[in-house]
Amino acid sequence: MSSKYKALKEECFEANIELNNLGLVIYTFGNVSAVDRKNGVFAIKPSGVPYEKLTPDAIVIVDYDNTIIEGSMRPSSDTKTHAFLYKNWNHIGGIAHTHAMYSVAWAQAQKDIPVFGTTHADHLTADIPCAEPMKDNLIQGNYEHNTGIQILDCFKERNLSSEEVEMVLIGNHGPFAWGKTAAKAVYNSKVLETVAQMAYLTLQINPNAVRLKDALIKKHYERKHGKNAYYGQ
Amino acid sequence: MSSKYKALKEECFEANIELNNLGLVIYTFGNVSAVDRKNGVFAIKPSGVPYEKLTPDAIVIVDYDNTIIEGSMRPSSDTKTHAFLYKNWNHIGGIAHTHAMYSVAWAQAQKDIPVFGTTHADHLTADIPCAEPMKDNLIQGNYEHNTGIQILDCFKERNLSSEEVEMVLIGNHGPFAWGKTAAKAVYNSKVLETVAQMAYLTLQINPNAVRLKDALIKKHYERKHGKNAYYGQ
Amino acid sequence: MSSKYKALKEECFEANIELNNLGLVIYTFGNVSAVDRKNGVFAIKPSGVPYEKLTPDAIVIVDYDNTIIEGSMRPSSDTKTHAFLYKNWNHIGGIAHTHAMYSVAWAQAQKDIPVFGTTHADHLTADIPCAEPMKDNLIQGNYEHNTGIQILDCFKERNLSSEEVEMVLIGNHGPFAWGKTAAKAVYNSKVLETVAQMAYLTLQINPNAVRLKDALIKKHYERKHGKNAYYGQ
Amino acid sequence: MSSKYKALKEECFEANIELNNLGLVIYTFGNVSAVDRKNGVFAIKPSGVPYEKLTPDAIVIVDYDNTIIEGSMRPSSDTKTHAFLYKNWNHIGGIAHTHAMYSVAWAQAQKDIPVFGTTHADHLTADIPCAEPMKDNLIQGNYEHNTGIQILDCFKERNLSSEEVEMVLIGNHGPFAWGKTAAKAVYNSKVLETVAQMAYLTLQINPNAVRLKDALIKKHYERKHGKNAYYGQ
User: Fold this and answer.
1) Start and end of every Class II aldolase/adducin N-terminal domain (chains A, B, C, D) (predicted)?
2) Tens of pLDDT along A164-203?
């Protein structure tokens, strides 16, 4: 069963398996996609298939208008959200969605996650935004497509860059994360979950905990991401 | 040792083992049963046997009046609760009972679990009910039988459907969950435990967290369970 | 290296390993002993030996007056507490001491663990007692011996039976548990840790949570331990 | 590829792997170093290398002035902090830095960890200090070097001995721990994380929990570390 999308499917498959290995999903509560910019398609997990039974062949290929290009199964029910983000954000290569415990808790609490420390600032300088729950008229419409709109609107209103802030919480729902590759989107999902738990515990110990001071936010972010970055090889 | 209930015992055995694998029980703190509607009997875990030592042959076959039909061991001490539910709810195929951590915590707190997000709404539209602790005169009577009555009374008082709401907390005790099969009852036990932990964390982060809006509750539930459901294969 | 205490050492060794497997200890933060009533000696973990390096031969045999009867290593630093309890409570066959997370948290909070539900009542009808921290003059004396006195005094003051209540918290320190065998002492340590976590979460969800009603406490305890017990085989 | 630092690199490698095995790090969020006092150099993890891909050969050898002596990779971005501590504290043989969950939560809350019990007192008699976040002018300067200054200043201001208190929290950042060897530094990191979680839970159960009384602090510490210590072999 040869396919021109074999490598793309395998990248997508590996990223989905990693999501499960990292403890970010149970059952079918999550999905990862990987994009092929040259061909204008992306690979995504089929809907409702347990991770234990997932194979690279089961991965579905879809274009940015949600047409199935290859694959015998129905793609993730969140496919339209992925398609919308790929269409609007040319720089991203992969997207992950989970119902991970602490990320969901902040989303259900409808609170942004404040930047309380360097673990957070190593990855982004802003608070992690929690988008408002969707308006009723949008829910009745094209729901998953509109989730994508909801994310873009949130970034516009707050003047956030999706290149720097690679994660968001959807109020009363859960997290989406993205990155240059599907693997990076999964990495960002794990970072978000970790930072979400740290921030939760911080507020339990000190309800008046203060945000990291600006000089430290800048220092840590630029150590890893600035033009004079000296972290890593 | 051939038995006409061999397949039923194996279904019951597998579901009990899965309960343990999912981290929902320690020692002997739980049990699962599976029903055979045609023969009017159900298979249930023997009482006090550790999961590590459980075999399909040890599973006990009981009828709806609690008469042992097959098996050399004493059935679970909660057998009468299972029997009562099977007798009254024709649509269910399996029942699971655990003392899982977060489910028990809500039961001991005597609080319903509010529907705070889509993880919950993907499975049921109502708050997960916590039945009031049993009245003293019922405790002194046929206790496990009366636990079944307690569950049915709770559903009647609140006008809940046991086809839509497949789980309940017994005040000061713990959760029961059910479903079309024993495997689904175990699945529902895991969903309940997950949702219970999410709701607990949500209230820790925001004591004034609000329930999911009705339009979203309906949308998520119908995405998976409505007549135009498009989740899964 | 044959020894008349070979079986006793092995019982003690297995119970110590199980303590570690159950996640109740890290490093050397715990110890289990097993008694031989006929010979008036008990077997106990050597002090400061990591569980990964423990062997049955390393187990030390000690009498009730803390004299080493067999073994080339120094016994646990808590040996005198074990000896004192064996000397005073003829009915017990094993003792376990840990620094397990939730048990220690209640001990450090200096609070008894209220009987909030049936998981607790299945094992004991009383709140789990937290003994007051030791008086200064006793600390300067024979500390570990006096820890034994502290436990007995606590049970006397509260009129508790060490046959029914097989566990205690030492204020600002941690838990001791016992039972008919070393394995039962380890079991009780795990039950204590589980009930401690459940009670902690219950109070987080509902700070006004109430104790289980007396009729239910009695019912659940007698289901398992009364003269008409019908739990188990 | 023979090297006069082969044994040192292996010690450092093993300690880094243990940090990961103990669940104290995810991805590249941590590092351990081991010093060779005779040659005035230390071995440290390369920057940004995942633990799964780490080999003894990849370990970098650096002197106290941060000059790379051996190794083809860039050393940890925290190298200057390690160098500063080795230069100023002659008695230490290893240093570990993590972003472990509960340690970070206390650091982000900017709170010292009070000595609430004997688990803490078995290791140190003081509260675990949380150094104030760095002043802005120091952040803009030689950041990682200044983190070392920040630690020393904290110990001077509070009159703490780095031989007795082998751990510190950096406000809004995370923990550093040290010891006679790299393995001991890792051990202290695990003890710190455990004590941090215990103290967090203690305050959740009893916001008015009191510090361990002085006589008990002294007793437990001297049991293990005093001149008449009787813990261990």
Assistant:
1) 10-200
2) 999 999 999 999 999 999 999 999 999 999 999 999 999 9
